[in-house]
Write a structure and sequence with these properties.
- By secondary structure, the chain is of the alpha+beta class.
- It has 8 helices and 12 strands.
- It has a 4-stranded antiparallel beta sheet with strand order 11-10-9-12, covered by helices on one side. Strands 4-3-5 form a 3-stranded antiparallel beta sheet.
- A hairpin with a 4-residue loop joins strand 10 and strand 11.
- Helix 4 packs antiparallel against helix 8.
- The radius of gyration is 26 Å and the shape is elongated.
- It comes from Noviherbaspirillum aridicola.
Length: about 300
């Protein structure tokens, strides 16, 4: 809508919510019950099937924004009511959203719907080793040293390694990207894109140091504790502790219930989404961490 001139000559934009009306086919009571607090919400259809799981620090505001979004018309047409679950903060909402998308498999959540098989680059301490691609099904990414990057495919890992080699003028032959020929320059050296570790022009130790430094920004952080830890959040006097073990979210402890989650050993493994949610704020010291004991310990 265009701005209008008021009686005092000031420009004012109309309130975008002024003409808003709730979709008649979505249960109004479920919308009115939405709190302006952190948590997750679930759009469900008439058979109670989950259509979409989302999270927000303000559940009510975020859900109403969905109702105003023409691009989501298909999902909204299928929706009949909105369910919500409170959390004490944004970290809890992110962890719960990730868990529920995997558990419920909602139709319109495509990005996080499936548990992904990840791979990484591994560079062993051996000075003559070359980066190799390893998979989460074969290595515990939460406790294995010398792993770099998280990739959905082998192709993506190789593309990233090629990018690093090109950017830092490393040797493709000594990084496993092309066959090494003893005493012969790699192709990159022939076009002045390699500093010459393949021919002895650059010491192997220096090449190794540069390769290690280039990979360091991609290092997968090993879980720093021996067992599970709690991440504490509080809202309106309500304390919630989110229990994570080796980058796997086990559940949350509420002050009301006071019962720790049970360790689910069969499913507990490195979870890439939990890792990405937590690793940066954890390294920056932004999370309130406490030791916890699980119900079956």
């Amino acid at each position: 809508m265009p701005p209008r001139v008021t009686s005092v000559g000031l420009l004012a934009r109309p309130d975008p919510a002024a003409g808003f009306s709730y979709p008649h086919h979505i249960d109004r009571a479920s919308l009115d019950a939405l709190p302006s607090r952190p948590g997750i919400y679930i759009f469900r259809d008439e058979q109670d099937r989950p259509l979409y799981v989302g999270k927000s620090v303000n559940i009510r505001s975020r859900v109403l924004s969905h109702l105003r979004t023409p691009e989501e018309a298909r999902m909204l047409q299928q929706s009949r009511y909105v369910e919500y679950r409170r959390t004490a903060g944004d970290i809890g909402a992110l962890l719960l959203e990730s868990r529920l998308i995997k558990d419920l498999q909602p139709l319109h959540n495509k990005k996080l719907r499936r548990t992904r098989e990840m791979c990484a680059l591994r560079l062993s301490p051996d000075a003559r080793s070359v980066p190799e691609i390893v998979y989460a099904r074969e290595h515990d990414f939460a406790s294995s040293e010398h792993l770099y990057g998280l990739f959905a495919t082998r192709k993506a890992a190789l593309e990233k390694l090629r990018e690093i080699v090109d950017m830092h003028m490393l040797c493709p032959a000594l990084t496993g990207l092309e066959q090494a020929m003893r005493g012969r320059a790699c192709f990159a050296r022939q076009i002045s894109r390699c500093l010459g570790a393949c021919t002895g022009a650059e010491p192997l130790a220096e090449h190794r140091r540069r390769l290690q430094a280039a990979l360091d920004d991609l290092r997968i952080v090993v879980w720093p504790w021996a067992g599970p830890m709690g991440i504490v959040e509080e809202c309106d006097g309500w304390k919630q502790t989110h229990v994570v073990d080796h980058w796997f979210y086990l559940g949350s402890i509420d002050d009301v219930a006071g019962l720790p989650p049970t360790r689910r050993a069969a499913r507990r493994s490195f979870d890439v989404d939990t890792y990405k949610i937590l690793v940066k704020p954890m390294l920056r010291g932004e999370l309130r961490m406490e030791e916890v004991r699980l119900a079956d310990e």
